[in-house]
């Protein structure tokens, strides 16, 4: 799990870091998929933009 995900999710769940180098050095790519019509809704547009800036 990338550090940014850990920082975000550890606020919600009691996560723990595992001291295992191969796992800690692992890189994860992710994509954000959304419907183009979602950008017409100001609230969803803001949420999408915040997620894009954070990651």
Main traits of this protein?
mainly alpha
Explain what you see.
The chain has 55 residues and is mostly helical. It has one domain. Helix content is 44%, strand content 0%. It contains three helices and no strands. It has helices at 3-9, 21-24, 42-54. The model has no long low-confidence stretch (mean pLDDT 81).
> What does the average pLDDT come to?
81
Query: What is the ordering of alpha helices and beta strands?
Result: HHH
Cα shape: elongated
CA-based gyration radius: 15 Å
SS field, number of helical segments: 3
Lay out the secondary structure.
Layout: H1 3-9, H2 21-24, H3 42-54
Précis, in short:
The protein has helices at residues 3-9, 21-24, 42-54.
């Amino acid at each position: 799990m990338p550090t940014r995900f850990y920082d975000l999710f550890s606020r919600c769940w009691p996560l723990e870091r595992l001291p295992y180098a191969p796992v800690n050095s692992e890189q994860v790519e992710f994509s954000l998929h959304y419907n183009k019509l979602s950008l017409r809704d100001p609230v969803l547009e803001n949420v999408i933009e915040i997620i894009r800036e954070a990651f």
